[in-house]
Amino acid sequence: MTATPWHWALTDDYPAFCLTFARGLDPHALLRRYGAHSGDPRVLTEQESIAEPPADASLLRAGTVDGWAFCFETRGVQGWTAHVLTEVSRDTESFTVMRAGALHAVSHWQNGQKREAFEPGTPYSFDPNHSHLLWNAVRARLEQPRPVPSFLAALDAVSEHIGGSLTESAIEGPLLTVVLPEPASVLPEATAGHEGLGRCLGTLAPPPPSRDPESR
């Protein structure tokens, strides 16, 4: 299997998450666009942040990588809703990858408009009326003699376009952290706008991950 810095993204430590990159924003601005208008973000490590949110809230952790702000949302997928995707990409561009159990998706938005969104490795989720930037990059990786899993191919494709990636140590280290209350119902948006596409996930509030350093 081709080496990838994203191996941590398919571990049981992160059963549901959204990872968003926005060009030219700072972490505070990205958190505000995400909807975190109340509360004071604090710089916390992942271990320090585990006890932060109640069951009905998402945990947002933000930082920067190569000129892009990123937000790593766990315990929810509010970052995949149309409102957040529109706000995050306003006057800039964004890439978002989402994992919710067996459902994986990736999107590219620019100036508040969707350029493309699909489930990696799932042809029926592809919309030919949208940009093919990520789709072509993911497909090329899946056609290699020793391909990586489709979700990791999507993360590698995003890395190529932003010029950087996130390692497990970066995710575990100190990041700007805030709790975002979860709406009554958070449903991932259909990737390609086809009726019935994907699975209806309901409100996602997975139990707090076990990140005991002594068990690793």
Automatic annotation (TrEMBL):
Residues 197-216 are annotated as: Disordered. InterPro entries: DUF6461. It comes from the Bacteria. Pfam families: DUF6461. This is DUF6461 domain-containing protein. It comes from Streptantibioticus parmotrematis.
